[in-house]
Design goal:
Structural class: mainly alpha
Shape: globular
CATH topology: Arc Repressor Mutant, subunit A
Radius of gyration: 12 Å
Mean pLDDT: 89
Distance between the termini: 19 Å
Low-confidence stretches: none
Strand content: 5-15%
Number of domains: 1
Order of helices and strands: HEHHEHEEH
Strand order of the largest sheet: 1-2
Helix content: 40-55%
Largest sheet: 2 strands, parallel
Number of strands: 4
Number of helices: 5
CATH class: Mainly Alpha
Length: 99
DNA sequence: CGGCTGGCGTCGT
DNA sequence: TACGACGCCAGCC
């Protein structure tokens, strides 16, 4: 199974209303410091819309990037009940999903 | 709080 | 097939 298939599968475990970080997702698939790799794969995203890549944020609390634009990502997260302020997650620890 | 460096899979040459 | 550059970060200074 390809790495992106693992990431894609793991990401689907994240329920609506909860999010994860690039680092955690990377570790979930067996990578130590694969944060950037995860982000890169999300960008290449082989299955747009099917993969909720908008539920993946940076460990610093910032939204991070998004293939369709950060504002779109922010809007989707807000729609799932996640509080965002000035481009950052307000209660990251509270909305963070644990694998 | 801002900036620089580390570290790893993919893509292109 | 092999090597180098790049990218929706993370962590330390």
């Amino acid at each position: 199974m390809n790495l992106q298939q693992k990431i894609y599968k793991k990401l689907l475990e994240v329920p609506k209303g909860q999010i994860t970080t690039y680092g955690d997702l990377a570790k979930a698939v067996g990578l130590k410091n694969g944060q950037r790799v995860v982000g890169q794969i999300m960008n290449k995203n082989p299955h747009p819309v099917i993969i909720p890549c908008h539920r993946v944020v940076m460990s610093t609390g910032k939204i991070g990037g998004y293939a369709y634009g950060e504002h779109v990502k922010t809007r989707m997260l807000n729609d799932e009940g996640i509080q965002i302020e000035n481009g950052k997650i307000v209660n990251l620890k509270d909305t963070l999903y644990r694998f």
